[in-house]
Design goal:
single chain; 122 residues; mainly beta; eight-stranded antiparallel beta barrel; 1 helix; Lipocalin-like domain-containing protein
């Protein structure tokens, strides 16, 4: 009988990262950009932008091209805990399918919470 190969958590993590990386590759269109600002206990102010002709194109070499703020090339990487590091800033991946990619970030400053969400489709 062949020995049972034990699953190595590090290998599993690497596989998860590889699978996410493969799903992210290619061109995505930004269809929605949501900005939320919440001061203390006040209701959040939500601005929902519907950008036109904004894209992100992810390449296997860890580069992403975008025209979100003028034509530029940024770096990115993926981590096993659903984190996308985009140009040095951590983003949380909340959805990643063949046709939908959603990620965002949250920051706090002086009692105000800022949240940005990017919704992309193919």
């Amino acid at each position: 009988m062949a020995p049972v190969k034990k699953s190595n958590p590090k290998d599993d993590q690497n596989k998860a990262v590889e699978m996410m990386q493969q799903k992210i590759l290619g061109r995505w269109n930004l269809i929605k950009f949501i900005e939320e600002t919440k001061k203390g206990n006040e209701p959040a102010e939500v601005i929902e932008n519907k950008p036109e002709d904004i894209y992100f194109e992810f390449f296997a070499n860890g580069k992403v091209k975008t025209n979100a703020e003028g034509e530029e090339e940024l770096s990115y990487s993926v981590k096993a805990d659903n984190t996308l590091i985009l140009n040095g800033f951590p983003q949380t991946i909340t959805a990643l399918t063949g046709s939908r990619f959603t990620f965002g970030n949250t920051a706090s400053e002086a009692g105000t919470v800022y949240k940005q969400t990017y919704v992309l489709t193919r």
